Amino acid sequence: MAIISVFSAYFSRAEDITNRVGEMTGWPLMDDRLFTETSNRYGTSREKLERAMTGPPFLFNKFTHRREQYLAQLRTVLAELLADNQILPGFASHLIPQQVGHVLRVCLVSDSDWRAETISGELGISREEAQRRIHKEDLKRAEWTRMLYGKQPWDTTLYDLKLPVHTMDVEKAARLIVDTANRDVMRKTPESELALRDFATAAHAEQT
Q1: For residue 55, which of 71, 41, 44 has the smallest C-alpha distance?
Q2: How far apart are CA 144 and CA 52, in angstroms?
Q3: What's the distance, CA 96 to chain centroid?
Q4: pLDDT per residue over 110-161, tens digit each?
Q5: Looking at residue 1, what is its pLDDT?
Q6: What does the CA dihedral 39, 80, 179, 92 come to, rounded to 10 degrees?
């Protein structure tokens, strides 16, 4: 079995789809646990941990390195929590090194016009305001993956499975993810186990 990581464009049914994957598999979503345990261990608020990934930038970060400090805290705890049969959604999904091969990396994307129409209808705002929010939120995602990988957030080289959710319902998207996670190619190997141990070692080294 695999670890499933899920990164998504803004307003692309990510919560509905990951919750359905959890229901289908019985696997836990570990994002809340990651933030809770990191906050408890280091005394860093969840707000600051999330801000380290999504912005806005910390004042004088060039000198204080607060962002790097908080990301190191998250990596340290994540390395300890990672095990088979888990789902990690959101920005934290990109903290798992690409070398860990038994991670199914999923990207959920959707057409901008579809998102604007959906947001406008569900939130009762204008299409112009919906487009503004899409642009703002997707910029956060672009900044995040550029910092980590030097790549755009929807770059296919970052993922094993990229789903255009405006063309399918939640059930179909979740089923595709589960079926892919159950393939033999996603099973843990000695190489992927070593990569996971290396991640844990490197994460701890960042804290020293």
Answers
A1: 71
A2: 10
A3: 9
A4: 999 999 999 999 999 999 999 999 999 999 999 999 999 999 999 999 999 9
A5: 62
A6: 40
